[in-house]
Amino acid sequence: MNIETRGHKLREDGRMNIETRGLRADGRMNIETRGHKLRADGRMNIETRGLRADGRMNIETRGHKLRADRRMNIEMRGLRADGRMNIETRGPSA
Q: Where is this region: Disordered (predicted)?
């Protein structure tokens, strides 16, 4: 599914705070990023590849050039009991 969030830039340490609000009834997930804008329109496209058996989710970012291939490493920590998900970005990486 495609998720579009308000886009923000990475912090000096190469990380970004992303908070999930839990799955909605239609299967989409609200994701909130905190920080400064990445693009002029203030948005960043995030595409999820679906939950895995261990509760993690593959996420691909698009629409900004963090690396030469326009990707950013995002690590899923799994769903929490309240339906939120811990997401950690690794920053630009070759």
A: 1-21
Tokens of 37: 């804008």
Is the pTM value of this prediction over 0.85?
no
Separation of alpha carbons 81 and 38, rounded Å:
31
Helix H or strand E encompassing 17: strand 17-23
Q: What share of the chain is helix, strand, coil (3-state, %, to 5)?
A: 0, 50, 50
- 69 and 59 Cβ atoms separated by less than 8 Å: no
Type of residue numbered 81: A
What percent of the chain clears pLDDT 90, i.e. is strictly above it? Answer: 0
